[in-house]
Every structure is written in structure tokens, then in C-alpha cells.
Specification:
The structure holds 2 protein chains of 2 kinds.
Chain A: E1 4-7, E2 10-13, E3 19-25, E4 31-37, E5 43-51, E6 54-57, E7 64-66, E8 76-78, E9 87-94, E10 101-102, E11 106-110
Parallel strand pairs in A: 2-11
Antiparallel strand pairs in A: 1-3, 3-8, 4-5, 4-9, 5-6, 7-8, 9-10, 9-11
Chain B: E1 5-7, E2 10-14, E3 19-24, E4 31-37, E5 44-49, E6 55-58, E7 61-65, E8 71-76, E9 85-92, E10 98-100, E11 104-109
Parallel strand pairs in B: 2-11
Antiparallel strand pairs in B: 1-3, 3-8, 4-5, 4-9, 6-7, 7-8, 9-10, 9-11
Classes of the chains: A mainly beta, B mainly beta.
């Protein structure tokens, strides 16, 4: 079964700690994306990658970092520089213009 | 970045009623997409539209790509309780330029 997996589903961290969210896809998609969703709001793009070893900042990249060493994987690190990290994080992948397919999301709570 | 204008923000309807929601933009798009999100889950793609004027159905769902390429609507006919959720529109011009609406929260009363 092809799809996108994100782990863990729920994550709790203390303020000031970095945390890495996992995203893996076996759809053979070239492009991968990270979005942030806050309650009652739409999706805001954090980072995207259209090919291995290349990634670009989205609209709200400050305080986040990513890597794309493998086609299947696009981990997101939420650093201590992110002022308000508690949110629902969604990973997606796509093949160009055929729409984006989303993972189940990770809910990060910073205590 | 620019977001799409999606309306209404929320809807409360009776089971069996039809639903209509729409998205508008000041920019043109080459692709319009409609997603549904259940609480605590990722959005699921419902319908994708690739040509101006295109009308596409998926079961009880029908969506249209506006002729001006700046708008799209989604209709749900004969709503059922499992239609509850948040519906998002998304517009894409090319490559990475995809933008999302803020969502329409649908509540269906049995």
C-alpha cells in the first residue's frame, strides 16, 4: 500500500528543546512539503523540496529546518528559535501538477 | 503568502440538504483542488480540476473550475452525517505555487 507516514502522532517537548518530525513516502513522488496548521486556520507552507538534496523556504520557515537526503524522506526539525511551535504539522508529497497527498499529521505540544 | 478567499467559513445543515461552498482569488490558477479534513487527520483529496470551465463529479460531490480561472465551487448533494469535516480549496498556478483557502467547517445535523 502506497502512502505517506508521519511519526509520531502526538509529540510533547519542553520549551527550548529541538524536536524532529518524521515524514516518509513510498509513492515515488519527487516533491515533498511541510505545512503548519493552527486551530481554525488553513495550511501554511514551511518548507518544500522538489528533488533530493534541494529544498526551499516556504512562507513561515523561520525557526524550522529540513533535509532531503533520500527521495522517500523529508524530516522537519522544529528548533528552539521557533517562537510558537505548538501546532498540527502536516507532510505532503506530489508529482508536479497532480495535487498533493497528505500524511496523517503530527500534533506537537510544547510545554 | 496570499491565501484564497473561501466561503462560507462554516455551515450548519440538516441531513439530506445540499451544500455549496466556493473559493475566489485575485490570481489565476491552472489547477483547482478540493480536500476534506477530518479532526486530527490529514486532508484527503476529493476532486482535482485542470481546465477552465471543467465540471467534475465524484459521487455526491461536484466541483467546477471557473471560466475566469480565478474561482471554483464545490457542491455536495443529499448530505449525510459522515460529510462532517473541514473542506479546503487549493489553487495552483505552476510548480510550487499552491495556495490554500482557510476552510469551510461543515456540520450535518441528523
Amino acid at each position: 500500500d502506497g502512502g505517506i507516514t508521519q511519526s509520531p502522532k502526538y509529540l510533547f517537548r519542553k520549551e527550548g528543546q529541538n524536536v524532529t518530525l518524521s515524514c516518509e513516502q513510498n509513492l515515488n513522488h519527487d516533491a515533498m512539503y511541510w505545512y503548519r496548521q493552527d486551530p481554525g486556520q488553513g495550511l501554511r507552507l514551511i518548507y518544500y523540496s522538489q528533488i533530493v538534496n534541494d529544498f526551499q523556504k516556504g512562507d513561515i520557515a523561520e525557526g524550522y529546518s529540513v533535509s532531503r537526503e533520500k527521495k522517500e524522506s523529508f524530516p522537519l526539525t522544529v528548533t528552539s528559535a521557533q517562537k510558537n511551535p505548538t501546532a498540527f504539522y502536516l507532510c505532503a508529497s506530489s508529482n508536479r501538477d497532480w495535487g498533493e497527498y497528505f500524511g496523517p499529521g503530527t500534533r506537537l505540544t510544547v510545554l | 503568502g496570499q491565501q484564497l478567499n473561501q466561503s462560507p467559513q462554516s455551515m450548519f445543515i440538516q441531513e439530506g440538504e445540499d451544500v455549496s461552498m466556493n473559493c475566489t482569488s485575485s490570481s489565476i490558477f491552472n489547477t483547482w483542488l478540493w480536500y476534506k479534513q477530518d479532526p486530527g487527520e490529514g486532508p484527503v483529496l476529493l476532486i482535482a480540476l485542470y481546465k477552465a470551465g471543467e465540471l467534475t463529479s465524484n459521487g455526491r460531490l461536484t466541483a467546477q473550475f471557473g471560466i475566469t480561472r480565478k474561482d471554483s465551487f464545490l457542491n455536495i448533494s443529499a448530505s449525510i452525517p459522515s460529510d462532517v469535516g473541514i473542506y479546503f480549496c487549493a489553487g495552483q498556478y505552476s510548480g510550487r505555487d499552491m495556495r490554500f483557502g482557510a476552510g469551510t467547517r461543515l456540520t450535518v445535523k441528523p
